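Person: At home tonight, work slowly through the protein below, taking as long as you need, and write a paragraph about the fold.
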Amino acid sequence: MSLEFVSSPSLCHGSARALGRSIALFFCFSFAHAAVAQDQGDAPAPKVSIAAAYSEEITDEASFIGRAEATEKVDIVARVNGFLDSQDVEDGALVNEGDLLFTIEPDLYQATLEARKADLDRAEANLELAKVDLARKEELYKRDATPESERDIARANELVAEAEVKAAKAAIQQAELDLSYTEIHAPFTGRLGRVTTSVGDVVGPNNPPLVNLVSEAPIYVNFSLNEKQFTTVLETVGANPASLAESEQSPVVKVTLPNGTALPETGKIVFVDNRIDPLTGAITLRAQFDNADRLIVDGAFLNVQIEALEPTLQVLIPQAALQRDQRGEFVLVVNDQQMVEQRYITTGDTVGSAIIVSDGLREGESVIVEGLQRVRPGVAVDAIVASEQPGE
């Protein structure tokens, strides 16, 4: 019996009539498998876009949470009792050192001052009389015309009169101070908060503050470093905690505002605490910013960044190449044979649209950035260089 090979699947049923049923089915399945294999072999390799890992000098940054603190701030409290006679500023006003803020009724304190001046005049008159009396008693005592006790009494009266003059002068000073306290002036330049009293209210040392005053520029930002970070900074700068603030190589400090905007100006470390907090294992540092635009507000929480003193060479890839699974982050690498490899990597900070690769990838190796869904590890690809290469 001669066997005739069928040339297409459509002839399989006809062949089954000429051949035994089982033999014909065998040849039909063999033909179909060969046809599929031929189709796969002829299919073009999927096209993907690749980008090469590149190196760039990156200045590392360490980030911390900091809090803004005004260089000067005070609650304005009345130092004498009385009715509030006038309010010379508005809520939230910017004031200069020495500006008049409030006036407490001065009439009572002016009258008290005049009374103390009159007391001084009386005390000085009594002193003059005591001096005249002592001089007379001294002369009489020399002539044996008066006993010694009379002279001693006159001398004591003079001393009492002198003490009364000193007391009167001190009372005048106190009265003048009290009168001066009726005018409340700004102790430094800054911005006021909300005024808590009204004209006509009784105010005094035991009453709540009239208003608070905060200096806005310059301003401090306090933050903390752990022991390892602090020691590294000291070793790199070659300074000790006391001299770090004065060192010319002191690290540059930057802040990010609460809305995510980076403050354009930089700050300088001006204070280092003298101990590490045993509860947190951190030490407090203070940076000072000019705060020219008043964007840092007292009490605000900020993201603080300290830049490394020297940049380091880092490997970067586009963030579009990065994928993740249960094992971690990985990229698809196209090797020299145009085959796809899966490579797990260790990443660092982002730099614009790129990300730092600290381990798992070398400079110059190509990673797939487009077409990731069309490929898998172990297949050949038709790789083309992405139109925009980072780092160029």
In short: The first helix runs from residue 12 to 18. Confidence is low (pLDDT under 50) at residues 1-40. The two ends are 73 Å apart (CA to CA).
